[in-house]
Amino acid sequence: MGNELGTSFFAMYKELIWTSKKWEEYQDLFTTNSERIKIVNQSAPLFFSIIMDSLENDILLSISRLTDPLTTGKFKNASLRRALPEVSDEATREKLTSQIDSLETIVKTIREKRNKNISHIDFDHLFQIPSDSIVVVKYTEIEDALNQIQKIFNQIEQHFCKSSIVFECFPSMGGAYELLRLLDQGLQFDEAVQLQRGKSPITITPSKKEI
């Protein structure tokens, strides 16, 4: 790959691995089933609303960074297009170029939301001028974008290193599912205690050591 592309590719690889993992955790918390949403809303709705927005914005930012053009003004970007000039096989280069072009269509709404909502406060969007300027990203767009980026990464990896990358290679130890399980147990215990006490409210004041 060479030093420049190798360094850029490794940085993008780490970005994509963690973005894919964040998306898995997001789905575990907010899109899997209604029972999990119920646990979230009963335990700490404000906190999880903040987590939901923060995770979603972070994922959209990462997808936008990976699909940035080669340069922004006078600054170079470590994005997927950085690999194209280094691909010696013409057929492979043309195939990757076509796939990255197609990816830009997939991420169009994601990048628009990044520009109007996340990285900047767009004036027209803020005042909804016109009303169709509101940018809404569908979950399927995030899923499609990540799948396509992973596919492109694997083709680049195959071309240069004759290997492939597994993006779901480590379990979610200590992740969203474990958190939901503990919260569910806590809610059930709290309900049992309140029933035993005649549904009187329970106030628990943790000690400073516990905090």
TrEMBL record:
It comes from the Bacteria. This is HEPN AbiU2-like domain-containing protein. Pfam families: HEPN_AbiU2 (PF18734). It comes from Marinoscillum luteum. Residues 11-170 form the HEPN AbiU2-like domain.
